[in-house]
Amino acid sequence: MGMSENSTKAHFGPSNPSPQENEKSKIKRYASVIGLNPEQELYYRQLHAHVWPSILNQIKQANLQNFSIHLTEIEGKKYLFSYYEYTGEHYEKDMSNMAKDPEMQRWWKETSSCQIPLPGSHPEEPWKPMEMLFFQE
């Protein structure tokens, strides 16, 4: 995950493993953030209160676990924070397979209409990746 030019240089140690040390871990951890359209909050909550079984199955098939989405409000704006752990061997392949699933594409169409991508995110990856600064198992 890249850091912006004006960010402080990363420091690694026992409680903040380097990207190389993270790569050796059996479990990879991913966190990201995106805005939430306040007018769509109720719909977004309803979708996630009753996630389609095919979506839950796709998440398992992609070797994702401990997947959670959190909501907060900062200065009057709503934000979603996502966290999951990846336990597979081929992240890009698993994510690609999940993205090809028609039901997942339909789900993302529903949920993306509720989301507001943040500056610096990419159209193909609207959730902005976050850097891990602390880890304790």
Could you explain how this protein is built, in words?
This protein is an alpha+beta fold and 137 residues long. The protein has a single domain (25-129), classed as Alpha-Beta Plaits (2-Layer Sandwich), CATH 3.30.70. It is 33% helix and 25% strand. It contains five helices and five strands; from the N terminus they run αβααββααββ. It has helices at 19-24, 41-49, 53-61, 91-100, 102-112; strands spanning 28-36, 64-74, 77-86, 115-116, 128-129. Strand 2 and strand 3 (77-86) form a beta hairpin. The longest helix is centred in the C-terminal third of the chain and has 11 residues, at 102-112.
- Total number of domains: 1
- CATH fold-type name: Alpha-Beta Plaits
- What does the overall shape look like? globular
Count of DSSP E strands?
Answer: 5
CATH-derived architecture? 2-Layer Sandwich
Largest sheet: 5 strands, antiparallel
Beta-strand share of residues: 15-25%
CATH class: Alpha Beta
Tally of helical segments = 5
State the separation between the terminal residues, measured CA to CA.
21 Å
Helix content: 25-40%
Order of helices and strands: HEHHEEHHEE
Q: Structural class per helix/strand content?
A: alpha+beta
| Sequence stretches where pLDDT stays below 50 over 5 or more residues | none
